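2024-03-11 09:14:02 INFO queue: dequeued item BTB domain-containing protein, len=280
2024-03-11 09:14:02 INFO validating residues
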Amino acid sequence: MEVRDLIQRGNTLQAKFGVTNYNTPFASKISSECIISGTAVFQVRVIAAQVNNGHTNIYNNLIFVKFMKLHQDDDLNYIIKFSSDELGVINKTFISDDGTWHLVHENKRQQYKFDVTVHMDIVPSTTSFAMLHEDTELTDFELRGEDGSIRMHRAVLASASPVLRRMLGGTWREAAEGHVDVPGTSKATLQNLKDYIYLHTLPDVGLEQLLLLASYYMMQDLEQKCVDKLVSILTAENACDLIEFAAKHKVTRLLLAILECVQSGAVKVNEMRDHFLHGK
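2024-03-11 09:14:37 INFO prediction written
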């Protein structure tokens, strides 16, 4: 099985596979492990069989995929949507904790090629606080930024972050006063945080500051989603700035995701070099 044009950008992976049965009665081939966003492993397995009915060779091919969480001790759950134009598969969904090979296609060709697009996402919480997003009557806690504050619900905040849960459930001064100061954070970033907690939405701008807030409050799902979105818009022009940002703030998850993207060829090193040295 030949694998080529493998590109991994954030939480999306693309590749092309080629299979030829060289008149072998039975063969099983497994692709190398493809790491998606540093958090999950995707693999393809092809089983090829050939029999002769006395007149001609008959080929039977089965294509399987497997998707597994890379770090079993993290608290996140992931899904992938698997698509292939050549195989006629669109957004077939698999869960990372499944751990089995899933049959996605079968055919009777001796030689064939197929494309693969895999998009990974974190499984959203089944608990939704969307109906409370615009509520002001029941809000009982305040996040204060440098230029303004955001009102929220203690219970909702506690459910979103283990750091905030300890703060709100203990004897901390902030719990008694009903507010917490968030130094170096703007009101806009705090609003983005609220929008994600209540609505599971992400902004188009300001992702870097939201990522820092997610890391500080130990919100792994938000941190991963920010990383995925930043890498999905990675270019030669902004790659160096994002690498510098990740290194400065020790955001290892973002730094590794960028390096994986560059290694896969989604962003070219020579283009980064030209932009960094000459501003082209």
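2024-03-11 09:14:37 INFO annotate: The chain has a mean pLDDT of 88.
2024-03-11 09:14:38 INFO item closed
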